Amino acid sequence: MTNDRLNLIYDKTHGYCHLCHKKLAFINYGIYGAKGAWHIEHSKAKANGGTDHLNNLYAACIACNLEKGVLHTMTIRRRNNVTSAPLNKVKKDKIRSNNSVGGGFIGFIISAALGGPPLAIAACALIGAKIGYDNPVKK
Q1: Calpha distance 28→100 (Å, rounded)
Q2: What is the pairing mode between strands 38-42 and 57-61?
Q3: Is the domain of 12 the same as that of 63?
Q4: Cα–Cα distance between 30 and 36 in angstroms, integer?
Q5: Which residue segment(s) compose the domain that 22 sits in?
Q6: Helix (H) or strand (E) segment spanning residue 4
Q7: What angle do CA 54, 56, 58 make, to 5 degrees?
Q8: Which of 72, 80, 130, 85 minimizes the C-alpha distance to 106?
């Protein structure tokens, strides 16, 4: 496995286990017992017809990967109270950007509806944008 391919798989979930969301350490790939140790995990197990295609490969902590075996990914995520894989940095930033625009607009509308002075309206819009940015919602 090349370092470039490992990086692509690790970065898909921003360095978190896609099954339990535990933080992983890139340098501890395959080192059982090390903090943040991880394996490449086949979302659809090879025994169930899964492939080595990049869209089927995810980073998973060793404990989750061994527990999963040939089970369905959603089965293990449910056990860990997780509903989806962590988002990578690019997707998080896009959602934050979209949320800040929406939050700013909502802040502006509320403040204007309450008849606030222009400075208060602008302040509410900025606060709404900040709240939207700091609280990304997965889409």
Answers
A1: 36
A2: antiparallel
A3: yes
A4: 10
A5: 3-79
A6: helix 3-12
A7: 85
A8: 130
CA 3/CA 14 separation, integer angstroms: 16
Between the CA atoms of 25, 26, 31 and 32, what dihedral angle is there, to the nearest 10 degrees? Answer: 40
Q: Where are the beta strands (DSSP E) in 24-113?
A: 38-42, 57-61
Q: At what angle do helices 89-113 and 118-134 cross, to 10 degrees?
A: 150
Asked whether residue 84 is assigned to any structural domain, the reply reads no
Number of structural domains (the chain) is 2
- pLDDT tens by residue, the chain, 139 residues: 789 999 999 999 999 999 999 999 999 999 999 999 999 999 999 999 999 999 999 999 999 999 999 999 999 999 999 888 886 666 656 656 666 555 555 666 666 666 666 655 555 555 655 555 555 554 4
Question: For residue 82, what is the DSSP state?
Answer: -
